[in-house]
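As a warm-up, study this chain.
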Amino acid sequence: MAIKYCKEHYNGDASQNNQKQVVSILVTRFLESANYLPSYVPKIIELVNCHHDYDKPKNKLLQLLMEADLIVNCYENRPDYKKAEYIKKIFQTDGGKELMALCLKKEME
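Now compare it with the structure written out below.
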C-alpha cells in the first residue's frame, strides 16, 4: 500500500523508513473508507508496520501476514537462490511452506 505512494512522493524511494512514515495515515484512510470499526485500526496498523520485522517475536496473525506477503513478493519478483534460502527460514506454517515451495519450484522450471 505504501510502496506506490512513496514512489510517487519520495522521488521513487519506497524504502522501509519512508513506508513506515506514511503507512499509518494510508491504512487509516483505507480502513475508514471501507467502513472498518475504528477499534480495529490500531491493531491493523501495527500488523502492517511489523510485517517486515522478520527477526522479532510474532503472533500467529503476524506470521501469516508475513508469509502471505513473502509469497506474493516471490511471484512478483523472483528471489535469487541466496535470498530464497533466507526467505524459506522465515516460514513456520505448513501451508506457507508449501505455497512458497510451489512459487520457487515454478522459478526453477
